[in-house]
Amino acid sequence: MVINSQSQSAYIIDAVRTPVAKGKPNGAYADIHPVDLHAHTLAALVERTGIDPAVVDDVISGAVGQIGEQSGNTARWALLGAGFPESVPGVTVDRQCGSSQQAVHFAAQGVIAGAYDVAIASGVESMSRIPIGSQFQGKDFAGSRVGQRYDHGLVPQGVSAELIANKWDLSRARLDEFSAESHQRAARAWKDGLFDSQVAPITHLRVDETIRPETTAETLAGLRLAFKDDHWVERYPDVDWRVTAGNSSPVNDGSAAVLVASGEATERLGLTPRARVHAFAVSGDDPIYMLTGIIPATQKVLAKAGLTIDDIDVFEVNEAFASVVLAWQKETGADLGKVNINGGAIAIGHPLGASGARLMTTLVNNLEQTGGRYGLQVMCEAGGLANATIIERV
């Protein structure tokens, strides 16, 4: 959808995130319940904006591992944990890695439609307490009809990343070079204070825990292949395997939240908008390649906005794997100097359900820091899905 001048605009008032922690038993948030982690960010958003939480029409939150401590509609329990009035509702959505970017879309759609005056889009993931894939409980999640359609069977995301690297002729050296640059950009951003204003520290963690400033392409070249095994080699005998933990995103814990409001509400409540949601789109693509949905999603959202790739001043493209971003760049022609300018998920981390709101938080700040007008965020998602959002700095 593109928002024309006759439509009610949806404005981003503020956005905040926690530092991202290792999603492991020794990670900084391993002892924090995911609802409490989420509540921390919601409370921080209220404190930063000075908004009365009673005016929030809905809290829409993303979470991927919706089982155990992250089940039962975590958005509702997090807003209560943050001290919001009981009258404030909440709902938890799942579009896999793009869940909290989808939450931003739903919040903006609600405002544009006039259903909401004020909404919060947020997300949380505690991969230390809810390990990746826990929600499947070892069961087949796709069913027999999908199995019949894709007769060779679905593949894990890491294998999809390998297929992408091969199809787009991305060498191991290029993947490692890109990944090392992600760490160096993120480390430099922290050193220069560029993340300070967007982060609400929790416990003793004050910076993102998985950034390794000393990382180089040469050190990454020594890592072993992550997804090559006899089963996949037999199925894909022509693949030149090259994906490692070093050119993939890690597992992480974190939370982020974005306050969205109508123009009328911003004036009535004395809020100052930072950006306008200009256009948004979702797209599907081949579920075997799986992570390539960001290519048609980018094309779709640009067409809806009436913009070209060269009109975009900064990009946030989720670094699920280096091959995903580099294949996207080859197809779109985007200037890599404008992409993830302060590092991406390979360095900062990828707390699944929180990543969409985390990237939006970063995108708003990057637009302001560069003085750019338009920013584009796009995320690949399991099943061949992708969300794309264009915001305009105001």
TrEMBL record:
It comes from the Bacteria. Belongs to the thiolase-like superfamily. Thiolase family. The lineage of its organism: Bacteria, Bacillati, Actinomycetota, Actinomycetes, Propionibacteriales. It holds the Pfam family Thiolase_N. Its EC number is 2.3.1.16. Coiled coil: none annotated. One of its GO terms (molecular function) is acetyl-CoA C-acyltransferase activity. Residues 11-262 form the Thiolase N-terminal domain. The keyword Transferase applies. NCBIfam families: AcCoA-C-Actrans. It comes from Aeromicrobium terrae. The active site is at C97, H350, C380. This is Acetyl-CoA C-acyltransferase.
